[in-house]
TrEMBL record:
Domain of life: Bacteria
Presence of keyword Isomerase: no
Protein name as annotated: MFS transporter
Assigned GO CC terms: plasma membrane
Source organism of the structure: Orlajensenia leifsoniae
Gene Ontology molecular function, alphabetical: transmembrane transporter activity
Domain Major facilitator superfamily (MFS) profile: start-end pairs: 17-394
Keywords: Membrane, Transmembrane, Transmembrane helix
TM regions (residue ranges): 17-35, 55-76, 83-102, 114-134, 141-165, 171-193, 214-236, 248-270, 282-301, 307-325, 346-366, 372-389
Length: 417
C-alpha cells in the first residue's frame, strides 16, 4: 500500500459524528441553491418582480451574515451539539412556513428566519468538523467543502424536481431533510466535539478578530468574491428564462452541473493546486479567470449553450476558491477556529446578500449583460485586495516560518560573501 493511497483514504476514515455533521451540511447548503430553479415560478405564481424574488436570497444571506458574528458566542456557552440542533430546528420550522406562504413578502420573511438557523448551524459545523475529523485541518476542510459542493449540486436538482410539482415542494423537502439531519446529529454526535465543556468567547471576539490584518484582508476579499459568486448563482436563472430555459427541472439540471463542478474542484483540483503553489497565488490566479468567465457569459447572453458552458466552468473555478479561501482563513491567525469562522463567514455572507437584487436592478435599468460585468469587476477588486495584502497573508500560506528561514539563509550567504 503506497503512502498516497493511505492519505487519500484518511479523509474517508472519519468518526460517525463527523459524517452526521457532514450530512446535515449537505442539506444546509442545499438550502442555498434549492430556490434557484423555482425563482421564475415564484415570480410568475405570486406576481412578483425579479428584484422582489431575488430578495429570497438577500433576506436569507443578510440574516445568515449578521447572525454569524454571534454564533461562536452562543456555541461557546451551550456547546456545539446544542447549537447545531437549535440551528437545524429553526430551519425546519421556517422552511415549512415558507412552503405554506401565500405571498412573496411572507416567503422573504421566512427565508430570513431560515438564515438565522443556517448561521447557527453552518458556522458551528465547520468548527465541529475541523475539531472532530481525523487527518488534520486540511482534510477536514476538504470534507466540509465537499459537503458544500454536494449540497450546492443536489439543491437545484431537488428544487427542480419538487419545483416541477409546485414551487412549495422544495421548501417542504428541505424541512423533511433537515429533520433527518437533526435526528442524525442528536443520535451520532456524542463525541467530545459535542460534549466537552466549552470555553466561553466574548461577544466582541469576531469583531475584534477582523482587526487582525490577515483575517481582515481575507474577509474583504470574500465580500467581493461572494458578490460575483451570487451574481452567477442567483441571477443566471433570470438570464436563461428569455432563452426558453424557464422550467424548474431544466434550471435544476443546469445548476446541478454547476454544483457538481464546484464539488469536484473543491475536493480534487484545489488540493492539487495548493500542493504546487502558495494559497495566495492560487487565489490571485483563479479570481481573474472567474472575471473572464463572467465576461464570457455577458458576451454570450443570447446563447443558451454559451451561458450553460460558462456557468459550469465557473463552478470549477468557484470550487477551487471556496476550499483555498476557507483553508487560508483557518490558517491565517492563532484565534479559536469558531471565532475565525464566525468573523469571516459573517462578512462573506453579507457580500453575497447584496448581489442578487443589485444584479436584477442592473439588468432592468442598464442591460442584460450588466450584472455579469458587475460580477467580473467584483472578482477583479478581490484579486487586487489579495495582491495588495499578500505580506500579511504569509501565515495563510504557511510561509511565515519559511520566510524567516530564507532570511537567515540570506544573512549566511551575505556573511560568506
Amino acid at each position: 500500500m503506497s503512502h498516497g493511497s493511505t492519505s487519500g483514504s484518511s479523509i474517508l476514515k472519519q468518526p460517525k459524528a463527523v459524517w452526521a455533521v457532514a450530512f446535515a451540511c449537505v442539506v444546509a447548503f442545499m438550502g442555498i441553491g434549492l430556490v434557484d430553479p423555482i425563482l421564475p415560478a415564484i415570480a410568475a405564481d405570486l406576481q412578483a418582480t425579479p428584484t422582489e424574488t431575488e430578495f429570497l436570497f438577500t433576506s436569507y444571506l443578510v440574516i445568515t451574515g449578521i447572525a454569524m458574528f454571534f454564533t461562536s458566542w452562543v456555541s461557546s456557552r451551550i456547546g456545539a451539539k446544542k447549537t447545531l440542533l437549535i440551528g437545524l430546528a429553526v430551519i425546519v420550522v421556517f422552511a415549512a412556513a415558507a412552503g405554506l406562504s401565500g405571498d412573496v413578502e411572507s416567503i422573504i420573511g421566512f427565508r430570513a428566519g431560515w438564515g438565522l438557523g443556517n448561521a447557527l448551524f453552518i458556522s458551528t459545523a465547520l468548527a465541529t468538523i475541523v475539531g472532530a475529523a481525523s487527518g488534520g485541518t486540511s482534510s477536514a476542510i476538504i470534507l466540509y467543502e465537499a459537503a458544500l459542493g454536494l449540497g450546492l449540486a443536489i439543491g437545484p436538482l431537488v428544487g427542480g424536481v419538487l419545483g416541477s410539482w409546485s414551487w412549495r415542494g422544495p421548501f417542504f423537502g428541505t424541512a423533511v431533510l433537515m429533520a433527518v439531519g437533526f435526528i442524525a446529529i442528536s443520535t451520532l454526535l456524542r463525541s467530545s466535539a459535542g460534549d466537552e465543556k466549552p470555553v466561553p468567547t466574548a461577544l466582541s471576539a469576531p469583531f475584534r478578530a477582523l482587526g487582525r490584518p490577515a483575517l481582515a484582508i481575507l474577509a474583504a476579499t470574500a465580500v467581493f468574491y461572494n458578490f460575483g459568486f451570487f451574481v452567477l448563482l442567483a441571477y443566471t436563472p433570470f438570464a436563461l428564462v428569455p432563452l426558453g430555459v424557464s422550467s424548474a427541472i431544466s434550471l435544476g439540471f443546469v445548476f446541478f452541473g454547476w454544483g457538481v463542478a464546484v464539488a469536484v474542484s473543491s475536493v480534487w483540483l484545489a488540493p492539487m493546486l495548493t500542493a504546487r503553489m502558495r494559497r495566495t497565488r492560487v487565489i490571485w490566479t483563479i479570481l481573474p479567470l472567474l472575471a473572464l468567465d463572467l465576461v464570457a457569459i455577458a458576451l454570450l447572453i443570447h446563447s443558451v449553450v454559451g451561458i450553460v458552458v460558462f456557468v459550469v466552468v465557473g463552478g470549477l473555478l468557484l470550487g477551487i476558491m471556496n476550499t483555498v479561501l476557507t483553508e487560508s482563513v483557518m490558517e491565517a491567525t492563532d484565534l479559536p477556529r469558531s471565532v475565525a469562522s464566525s468573523a469571516y463567514s459573517g462578512v462573506r455572507f453579507l457580500g453575497g446578500a447584496v448581489a442578487p437584487p443589485v444584479a436584477s436592478l442592473l439588468a432592468a435599468n442598464i442591460s442584460e449583460p450588466a450584472p455579469f460585468i458587475a460580477g467580473a469587476i467584483a472578482f477583479v477588486v478581490a484579486t487586487l485586495i489579495v495582491i495588495a495584502g499578500r505580506k500579511a497573508l504569509a501565515t495563510s500560506d504557511g510561509m511565515a516560518e519559511l520566510d524567516e528561514a530564507e532570511q537567515a539563509e540570506a544573512v549566511l550567504v551575505g556573511d560568506a560573501a
